[in-house]
Amino acid sequence: MENPIYVSLSRQMTLRRQLDVISNNIANMNTTGFKQQRMLFTEFLERPGMHEQISFVQDRAVVRDLSAGGMMQTGNPLDLALTGHGYFTVDTASGPRYTRAGNFRLNDQRQIVDGGGLPVLGDNGQPLAIPNGTKDIMVSGDGTVSTELGQVGRLNIVTFRNEQLMTEVGAGLYVSDEEPQAAPADTKVAQGMLENSNVKPVVEMTALIEIQRQYQSNQKLIENEHERIRSAIQKLGRTA
Amino acid sequence: MRSLAIGATGMIAQQLNVETISNNIANATTTGFKKQRAEFQDLLYQNFRRIGSTSSDAGTIVPTGVQVGAGVRVAAVARVLEQGNLTVTDNKLDVAVNGSGYFQVQLPSGDTAYTRAGNFKLSPEGIIVTADGYPVQPAITIPAEAVDVAINASGEVMVKLDGQVAQQNVGQLQLATFANAAGLEAVGDNLFLQTGASGEAVGGNPGAPGFGRVVQGALETSNVNIVQEITTLISAQRAYEMNSKVIKTTDEMMQQASQLR
């Protein structure tokens, strides 16, 4: 008898989680290399007793919008942006992690490190170190890093068969159970640029309004249903 | 609710962004100032449905999980070390560094600080000092009878004494470079201190490999690009507004829930 309330409730719970996803997109609208996320909903069918089917809502998945973010010119030689589907590789204590955030810098050993200080790996699996006494760092489109004294190494730029299977671990890093593959030929490194997040503020704002209104109408439905049950009980009680 | 906290992280991050930008704008005409940029990172993610879990008895694998992020944080306020423009001042003791390297300055505490601001003066004893009166290292004394001072591109300081034709070398300006100059700690007054992140200072003469040249009679202006700062300021303000809108929406939804009879 309370099924309408439960169906509404299932929607309200998913709406709250969707609001969390939207809030995270908005909070990260200035985060380098951030990819906006969308929630997918599915119908969850149930046949209670012998009655007809009732369909609930379930949040099935969060998918990332993998489109490229806008490019921002910074002029910093170690700010690198990737065009196309590719990821830089950084080294952590628990294995390689992958990132689109190319706001790199040097550490005190002149190794190229990411924003969190993790060494960026070259295609030989070793961190790239810029020799002392050099000042010009050049990164070519294919990821080759060189100074005025010659080539230093090549950035390890990889991609995955299914990028949606990559898991966010925070700090702009991803991890995947899949084997990394060499990035496609159209993946290029742009030096002196950063990839902005691909969050579209207007889209997020309209989604925010929509969530709020849907939450409201579900609330209304719960209230109406509550009212219906109450008056039914009152009327039934009176005739008895 | 989680979105309240997420909106708050966004507002805090944008506030620091605005603070960084306002410091850049305030220092737009500060000699040797290097602009800073706030960098953001996403926070941890919570798994509500882990990627790769099965969705049916037949063993179907969920292609994507339900992962909800916890907002944003400031990862770093990085200093952008691009060269600032050189402005000609024609002041004999204004020295700009064209390229990499910092002047070394002795603080009253005895420690060495580093600066790009070459607006030097003379102390009562004739020693070359910074605008705050701290001696430049290695110390160079200009004799009182000098009528002209010339500093060449490799930092040699030559003076012409009254009544003499030949120039006399009175010292050599030195520069210091760092493995990671962005890791220097700014202490105000245009000064920087060495840190564990910057690496040890490496001294050298201007013009040597890896060191910039010095230019007499010029100053390095800040590398702040006002137009760029203003556009970043606008986008930071809008981002702040949107995060506050998230908080407002969440608040209204919570209000509705609490009004349920």
TrEMBL record, chain A:
PROSITE patterns found in the cross-reference section: FLAGELLA_BB_ROD
Flagellar basal body rod protein N-terminal domain: residues covered: 5-35
Subunit and partners: The basal body constitutes a major portion of the flagellar organelle and consists of five rings (E,L,P,S, and M) mounted on a central rod. The rod consists of about 26 subunits of FlgG in the distal portion, and FlgB, FlgC and FlgF are thought to build up the proximal portion of the rod with about 6 subunits each.
GO term, biological process aspect, one: bacterial-type flagellum-dependent swarming motility
Domain Flagellar hook protein FlgE/F/G-like D1: 81-146
Entry's family note: Belongs to the flagella basal body rod proteins family.
High-level lineage: Bacteria, Pseudomonadati, Pseudomonadota, Alphaproteobacteria, Rhodospirillales
Localization: Bacterial flagellum basal body
NCBIfam families to which the protein is assigned, alphabetical: FlgEFG_subfam (TIGR03506), flgF (TIGR02490)
Chief location: other
Keywords for the protein's UniProt record, in alphabetical order: Bacterial flagellum, Cell projection, Cilium, Flagellum
Gene that produces this protein: flgF
GO cellular component, one term: bacterial-type flagellum basal body, rod
Domain Flagellar basal-body/hook protein C-terminal residue range list: 190-234
PANTHER family from the UniProt entry: FLAGELLAR BASAL-BODY ROD PROTEIN FLGG, FLAGELLAR PROTEIN
SUPFAM superfamilies: Flagellar hook protein flgE
Record-given protein name: Flagellar basal-body rod protein FlgF
TrEMBL record, chain B:
Primary location group: other
GO biological process, one term: bacterial-type flagellum-dependent swarming motility
Limits of the Flagellar basal-body/hook protein C-terminal domain: 215-260
UniProtKB keywords: Bacterial flagellum, Cell projection, Cilium, Flagellum
Localization: Bacterial flagellum basal body
Aminoacyl-tRNA synthetase recorded as keyword: no
Keyword Nucleotidyltransferase: no
Domain spans labelled Flagellar hook protein FlgE/F/G-like D1: 96-159
GO cellular component, one term: bacterial-type flagellum basal body, distal rod
One Pfam family hit: Flg_bbr_C
SUPFAM superfamilies found in the cross-reference section: Flagellar hook protein flgE
Residue ranges of domain Flagellar basal body rod protein N-terminal in the record: 6-34
Oligomeric form and interacting partners: The basal body constitutes a major portion of the flagellar organelle and consists of four rings (L,P,S, and M) mounted on a central rod. The rod consists of about 26 subunits of FlgG in the distal portion, and FlgB, FlgC and FlgF are thought to build up the proximal portion of the rod with about 6 subunits each.
Stored PANTHER family: FLAGELLAR BASAL-BODY ROD PROTEIN FLGG, FLAGELLAR PROTEIN
Family to which this protein belongs: Belongs to the flagella basal body rod proteins family.
Name used for this protein in its record: Flagellar basal-body rod protein FlgG
Species assigned in the record: Azospirillum baldaniorum
Gene: flgG
